[in-house]
Amino acid sequence: MATRKALEPHIQQWRQIALAVNKALNEFVEEHRESIELWTQFAKIYPQLEPYINNISSGLNDPDFEIANDVIELAHIFAAIDLQKDPSAASILDVISSEAFQNSLIDFYSSMSLDADRLPLIKEALDLHNSEKYAGSICLLYGQIEGVLTESFEKANYIIINQKKINPVKIDGSVNNKSNLTGLVPKLEHAITRQDQLQSYYSKIKTYELVAGDAEETIPKTRNKILHGGDLGFNTEKRSAQLILWLYSTILQVRVLGI
Fold this sequence. Notes:
Layout: H1 2-31, H2 33-57, H3 68-71, H4 74-80, H5 92-96, H6 99-110, H7 119-130, H8 134-155, E1 159-162, E2 165-168, H9 184-193, H10 199-207, H11 219-227, H12 237-253
């Protein structure tokens, strides 16, 4: 009796706490019922999805697809899973050719102030990739990567395009009218001198090896070889997919310039 009398105030307090917690829990469940039901369903089907997720995610560790880590999100992976397909055949290539991933690329481009006339060309490149016409998609994608960069440099006042000449603008605002930045590498090298947040990214584009370990397989070098007819074996799904990733990455990166 003495013990109960001593504990009575605490018992009352614990009851009040329990009631408050129970009320808060009920309110939380009611407020988030839809999300809880969704996660409950997801937990049930996850074992079925796991082999697909593992095989697709392994592509993020492939040196040839390193850039994928900058642009591919978990939602893109889920959207690309086809349960009618053998899990062992699922790969990161499925994500890159998926409608959800490609639509997100298009949406990001559309949200920026870049030239709207470029959008049909990007869509055509994606359509060619999805149709397995990789020679066409690759040639278009190389051009659009450089086009996005060139346009962003012009909007950021890094260059001035004057009578088909591309003149560099220095940090102090002066224009070098005698210099003509033809090609992707000179533009990137000039952009690096402007010392903005994308310096390391510009260097990465210059040196990134599309075929890991082969210094001759960078974006600028392969672009020149292909467009000058010096490479006849370039039309692969992997290269086309890599360039889609690089185009998406470039669109995301140049936003920091206020484009």
